[in-house]
Amino acid sequence: MSNVMEKFDANEVIRFENGSKFISYLKNKENCRFTVGDILIRQFKGWQRNDDDKVVWNTELTSATSGAARKYVYVHENEFGIGYIKQLTANGKGLGKELICAADINHEQDRFLVDPDFQDHTLFGDENSEFNYNDAYKAAQKRKRELDKKNKAITSPSATWAEANAWMSTLKPGDSLWMGWDAFNASDTEYEVHSIACHPLKDWQKYKRWSRTTPPTTETEFYVMEVHVKGCAQNQIGNYERFTDDMLNQTVFTTQPYLYKQER
Fold first, then answer.
1. Is 262 a residue whose pLDDT tops 50?
2. Cα–Cα distance for residue pair 194/173, rounded to 1 Å
3. Cα separation of 120 and 132, whole Å?
4. 90 DSSP 8-state letter
5. Alpha carbon 248 to chain centroid distance?
């Protein structure tokens, strides 16, 4: 028997346990002690940008733009003390379909915590008042509409080729621009116009050989603008060319836009 045991590799157990969700649950069981009815948030393990050694836990959001944490509820605990969790719909109308078993997630990478808003309500709120878990989501949606309205007021008029040309004709070297996918998804990167030039439409293919854009036959000219990230010298990283048609596909802000995670 001893000969058999000598062939056993203890590292096999370590490898098995490292990949076992159940072992992970047993190691972290004390962190899963909730009360049925508790409102929870979910976090995923990550690392600090430019610092792979620093662990950060990122809260799951209802969407990339909302900034509101996705909420869950601890719905059941069986006779073995294993809990079950369900997602709450962001609109406040009930439960999602997926049932999550606390023993079936990798607790080294994934964890649930009591929602801080729910915790504050439990500790300091009126005991007779009901906790509205989607208040943060509604506040985020309201904030989104407000910022969207503010940013639309400072975007460049570029719905058509003629509008983009007319706006670009007002630019001059040294002007600042900010860009984004739309009025809400703005970037805080400031660009500086290095040069701006108007060209006859007959030269379009000369400048944009790989472009699939077909300029309107009613137009006679287009603009080429060189910009660079403010603070970067010309010909260094962060330099871009922007053409009239680029303005049709991107939202450009004439003053610093309002960012969702930043109060101005």
1. no
2. 5
3. 12
4. T
5. 24
**Bridge partners, residue 50, by sequence:** none
- Which residues does residue 45 pair with via DSSP β-bridges, in sequence order? 57
Give strand pairing partners of 69.
Answer: 61
Helix (H) or strand (E) holding 236: none
The better pLDDT of the pair 66, 215 is held by 215
Structure tokens at 126: 């009126």
CA count, 13 A, side-chain hemisphere, 72: 27
Residue 206 CA to residue 199 CA, distance in Å, equals 10
Whole-angstrom distance, CA of residue 38 vs CA of residue 115: 8
d(CA 55, CA 52): 7
Spatial contact of 39 and 114, defined as CB atoms under 8 Å apart: yes
Q: Using an 8 Å Cβ cutoff, are 69 and 41 in contact?
A: yes
Nearest alpha carbon to residue 140 among 240, 34, 260: 260
- pLDDT number for residue 22: 81
Look up residue 97 and give its DSSP letter: E
- Identify the three-state secondary structure at position 16: helix
Domain map (residue ranges) of the chain: 2-143, 154-253
Say how far apart CA 2 and CA 28 lie, in whole Å: 35
Nearest by Cα to 134 from 63, 65, 62 = 62
Per-residue pLDDT tens over the stretch 139-184? 777 877 888 888 888 888 888 899 889 989 999 998 998 887 776 6
Phi, psi (5° rounding) for residue 214? -105, 110
CB 214 within 8 A of CB 231: no
Element (H, E) at 84: strand 83-88
Mean pLDDT of the chain: 80
Which residues face 72 on adjacent strands? 40, 87
